[in-house]
Amino acid sequence: MKRRRGDELDTAIRTAVLRLLADQGPAGVTMEAVAAEARTSKPVLYRRWPDRTSLLRDTLLDVARAAIPHADTGSYRGDMLAVLRGWAALFTGANADVLRAAVAASAHDPELTAAFQADVIGWRKQEMAALLQRGIERGDVRPDVPVDIARELGQSVLWHRLLVTGDPITDDLVVTLVDDVLIPFVAAR
Q: Which residue numbers delimit the DNA-binding region (predicted)?
């Protein structure tokens, strides 16, 4: 069998992590299980990650960074449509079960919770704060907007539907959230 390296190996490892996470929750994501699932060795994993929490955190952060746009579209509305459409695609796509499993299991895994909050959610908070700052500089977001609320407002509805109600997450919902909730919230009063 040909030895995999670089991106090919990285993809196999991260795919194994996501599959194990969806099927067994975080407890099922051990270095041994990932090595077996990815058809590699534990030493290969340990050369890249010191422990399973680091591997989980990096994999989840990769998923978030790949799925959630963070480029400047030129307007607050455009930025928020892009961000919420990215969340909606993530929450309705192949990794939706992974996200549910990670969130549900984090109640029993303080180390994973801390890593997820610091790295994945922390990254999103920084990106959303930067998005709001760009809006303030352009004049389409009021300077006194409560950033800690504005950065979570639209996403919280999507998370609620994913984790609690199971109600559909559609593009119409995203547009309604942006136009009827977020823009009025950040607009000058």
A: 30-49
Q: What is the DSSP string of 109-169?
A: -HHHHHHIIIIIIHHHHHHHHHHHHHHHHHTSS-TT--HHHHTTHHHHHHHHIIIII----
Measured distance CA(184)–CA(58) in Å, rounded: 35
Higher pLDDT, 135 or 22: 135
In a domain, residue 77? The reply is: yes
How much is the pTM? 0.80
Look up residue 33 and give its two tokens: 């299980």
CATH of the domain at 150: 1.10.357.10
Is residue 5 a contact partner of residue 38, using CB atoms and an 8 Å limit? no
Q: Confirm if 48 and 73 have CB atoms less than 8 A apart.
A: no
- Under 8 Å between Cβ of 68 and 83: yes
Instruction: Identify the band that residue 44 occupies on the pLDDT scale cut at 50, 70 and 90.
Output: very high
